[in-house]
Task: inverse folding
């Protein structure tokens, strides 16, 4: 990754950034090779990774919550679709794995 292009990264070149093995010692093994993703905020990715915008692989919908929010007509613990609320996101640590509510 020598000779990496300079980008607007707060004055720090991406090639000067610590690699995963130094940022997370002992937590993850480094990949054998990395490549520039071409996406400014993403930086370098493992050479064998493929990356796509979410909208290219799934429909992304947003809208208003059904009212009342706890109406059993809409929500059930065994529902098919996860209903993401702000409280789910703020209570998650790093990754959103589960949600409080599911839509029928």
Result:
């Amino acid at each position: 990754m020598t000779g990496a292009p300079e980008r607007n990264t707060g004055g720090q070149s991406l090639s000067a950034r610590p690699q995963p093995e130094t940022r997370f010692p002992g937590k993850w093994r480094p990949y054998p090779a990395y490549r520039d993703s071409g996406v400014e905020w993403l930086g370098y990715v493992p050479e064998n990774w493929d990356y796509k915008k979410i909208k290219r692989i799934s429909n992304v919908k947003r809208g208003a919550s059904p009212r009342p929010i706890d109406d059993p007509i809409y929500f059930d613990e065994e529902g098919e679709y996860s209903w993401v609320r702000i409280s789910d996101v703020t209570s998650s640590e790093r990754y959103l794995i589960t949600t409080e509510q599911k839509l029928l």
